[in-house]
Sequence to fold (203 residues):
Amino acid sequence: MAVPGYGSTVDRLVTALGRLPGIGAKSAERLAHHLLKCPDSEAVELAESILAAKQRIRLCAVCYHLTDAEQPLCDICRDPRRDPSILCVVEQSRDLITLEKSRAWVGLYHVLLGRLAPLSGIGPDSLTIDALASRVAAGQIREIVMATNPNLEGDGTALLIAERLGPLNVRITRLARGLASGSTLEFANRDMLADAFTGRQPL
Fold:
């Protein structure tokens, strides 16, 4: 992503910023100019926070959510107010955070660290499915809520997990999909409407 007219140092910065997800060439260039113009303290704080996160953040020993290195268990797993008998399975920690912001879930989580993507070489062994099965086999969990993303890979991942956990005699459910509360039919796409019909409930 080297830009003609810049020196090698700026080119390196623009290229590095351009590797971040969702950052295109123009955005990388703007960010580089911002970092070059901002006070040294701001740039140093950013660099130090990135380095600290890389050095100190680990995966929770139970659910695989992000946690500080000095805490083997994440804040959620350590919270005595959570219901340990219900488990919500998500693909990534950012999905967990999205669900937490809704304040609608009182149970625990399990982070898969991805989803099945055979074309990208991501199979069951790349995910934390074995660890999930071990948690369920311990016998305390009565329900698993699959909250993988509503697409082909997410659905395939949920199906594989359901098959794997089938012999363990645990209830497995899937997040409902379709029309959001407060939305209108006018703005619903085909997939949303199909899910709404499939997941319809008695009035």
In short: The mean pLDDT is 90. The beta strands are 57-59, 66-68, 83-90, 107-111, 143-146, 171-174.
